[in-house]
Amino acid sequence: MKISASLIVKNEESVMQRCLDSVDKWADEIVVVDTGSTDSTMDICRAHPKVMLYESEYYNKDTHYSDFRFNIAKNESISKCTGDWVIWWDADDYIDESGACRIRELASNATEDCLFTFICSYGTLRFEHCRMFRNGAGIKFDEHHSCHEYLNSCGKPHFVARDIVVKHLPGKKGVSSATRNVAILEKDYFERGYKDQRTMFYLANSYREVGRHDEAVSLYNEYLKVSKWREERYFATLYKAQIFSSIGNFNDAFKAIYDCLFEDDRFAESYCLMGDILLHQGECEKARHWYSLALLLEPPADSRLFTEHTSYNQYPKNKLKEIDLTEQRSEDCQEDGGAQDVDCNVYRYNLPSDNKNAALALAALSMISSRGNCVLAIPFNDQQKKMIAACDGVELGSGDGMSLMLPDNLRGKSEIEWYCRSAGFILPGPFPILAEVKDVA
User: Fold this and answer.
1) 129-150, pLDDT tens digit by residue?
2) Segment among 196-205, 216-225, 341-350, 423-432 with least mean pLDDT
3) Would you say 257 and 235 are in contact if contact means Cβ atoms under 8 Å apart?
């Protein structure tokens, strides 16, 4: 059983030795196709006994980065591999000893003609990457995606090896990857006519990364009109929210965050972003709720894309500490007017103006109070005072509290669940829609 590593390189001298040392742990053959290096990259490769070095037939030092196509270059490297298994690799990838051993185990024990996906770590981001496949099965990179390319599986089954983590450790100087990717993807989209969902999504991402915000938002909107992939739709909407937040357009950011929750409410990134905006606006208690909500979540087990793992633990914990350090406890614990101190586990909520919705909100607040917190509801009218008096676990409050919002389009979710979420809590469900609750004149 022989494993080939497939690489394409150009001016990678700062990371090349580290890369080869890492690949040497699991590869029997290292196929390197150089696409125009003018530094010592090729010399480093020639000195390694496992490397089979080639100069690309298609690209050289005079190729402008906008004319480069990763799929063509990577297929060129794959075509020269002679191993039973092929793993494509980037020069700034790294894997530790245990991961290398797991690769060897996979290749030795696999009985199917299949592809294996590894987990890639890019800073604090984690996502899946299809990396390993049996040689000779006709598998290669799709011809219609020159950047953010992907392997065409030819109908072969996929298996995810979550215990194999490839770390992306950049160390190369030169044209930024975002600038390069914009140029390549624009050619795919505008000149080559590849106007599919993947090209739209990644071109919008690249626009966002280089600060071309209007173009990014416009393309995300076009993408969302046609895409059916739930997770990718979530991230497109989240990135829109991040753009709006970064330019201070908080109204549109709030709307986009709620759209994120409509798309997929299992990701903590959107809750953290809501907390960030509220904290920026000085709404410490509201921000506290959203950060606390993020801490109740785990990264979705079926997530394939760019999960920000710190959003589920360290980031919201740090933000909660920040709130604790910057907010005076005496101000948090005073009733309206500043005269009366109360317990710090008191939470105040403004009831909706509509009495039916107020009743639904009170039902949610009643469940929230069962967690041991004192919940105060601030009525909009006299009738709501009577409703509060009849509600178990909720007391009459005064002053100003958090707003309880009910989205216009519930998309299958009950009103009570959404009132719980707008209060900053996740409770076990499902919750039935309380159709029997009537408006009170």
Assistant:
1) 999 999 988 899 999 999 999 9
2) 423-432
3) no
> In sequence order, which ranges of 24-109 are alpha helices (DSSP H)?
41-46, 70-78, 97-109
What does the buried/exposed string (b/e) look like for 292-316 if buried means 16 or more CB atoms within 10 Å of the residue's CB?
Answer: bbbbebebeeebeebbbebbbeebb
Handedness of CA 206, 208, 211, 216 (dihedral sign): positive
Give the pLDDT confidence score for residue 262 in this predicted structure: 87
Question: Looking up tokens 């590869």, which residue turns up?
Answer: 27
Per-residue pLDDT of 45-68, as tens digits, reads 999 999 999 999 999 999 999 999
Going by C-alpha positions, the residue among 11, 8, 1, 3 that lies closest to residue 53 is 8
pLDDT of residue 9: 97
Q: What angle do helix axes 355-369 and 415-423 make, rounded to 10 degrees? A: 60
Question: What average pLDDT does the segment 153-169 reach?
Answer: 90
Q: How many residues does the chain have?
A: 441
| CATH no. for 244-327 | 1.25.40.10
Each domain of the chain, given as residue ranges in start order, spans 3-168, 175-227, 244-327, 345-423
Among all chains, which residue has been given the structure tokens 């601030």?
A: 378
Per-residue pLDDT, 174: 63
- Are 28 and 108 in contact by the 8 Å Cβ rule? The answer is no
Q: Would you say domain 3-168 falls under CATH 3.40.630.30?
A: no
**Contact status, residue 160 vs residue 115, Cβ threshold 8 Å:** no
Residue 313: DSSP 8-state: T
Do 307 and 299 meet the contact criterion of CB atoms below 8 Å apart? yes
Q: What is the CA radius of gyration of the chain?
A: 27
Rounded to an integer, what distance in angstroms lies between the CA atom of residue 389 and that of residue 380? 14
Report H helices in 227-304. 230-246, 250-263, 268-280, 284-295
8 A C-beta contact, residue 424 and residue 364? no
Task: Kindly indicate the confidence band of residue 227, based on its pLDDT and cuts at 50, 70 and 90.
Answer: very high
Residue range 100-136, pLDDT digits in tens: 999 999 999 987 888 999 999 988 889 999 999 999 8
Q: How far apart are CA 53 and CA 42, in angstroms?
A: 8
359: tokens are 């009743």
CA distance 207 to 21: 35
